[in-house]
Write a structure and sequence with these properties.
Helices cover 48% and strands 4% of the residues. The chain is mostly helical and 113 residues long.
Length: 113
């Protein structure tokens, strides 16, 4: 592909960027998956979104309708998990947190990941 690039009439490159936010929710809106934490490039994004959805659903059920409490618990529960997913992707040879889970419950054996 690189050899062909030199003769191509048009080549497009773009940067891959991520904005780290202090909070993944505001009012009644919560960000999930790549919208909230853009975990990785080409590897763990979908899995992190699925785990995030699972954790968020559990926190919403446990909070009994109090979305503010559920959103705060969701972020507290999954933040370290997302960091681990980013780190495992950035470091070749490290295992994925999706395969082995975490003790916090964000991705333990009962999640199916």
């Amino acid at each position: 592909m690189i050899e062909e690039m030199w003769d191509a009439p048009y080549v497009y490159f773009d940067s891959i960027s991520r904005i780290d936010m202090d909070s993944w929710s505001k009012d009644r809106v919560v960000l999930l998956g790549d919208a909230g934490f853009g975990a990785t490039v080409g590897g763990l994004g979908t899995g992190c979104a699925m785990v995030g959805a699972y954790v968020l659903a559990g926190e919403l059920a446990a909070a009994g309708g109090d979305h503010r409490t559920a959103f705060a618990r969701y972020q507290a529960e999954i933040r370290d998990y997302v960091r681990a997913a980013r780190s495992s992707r950035a470091t070749p040879g490290r295992s994925s947190p999706l395969r082995h889970g975490r003790s916090s419950g964000a991705a333990t054996g009962h999640t199916g990941f």
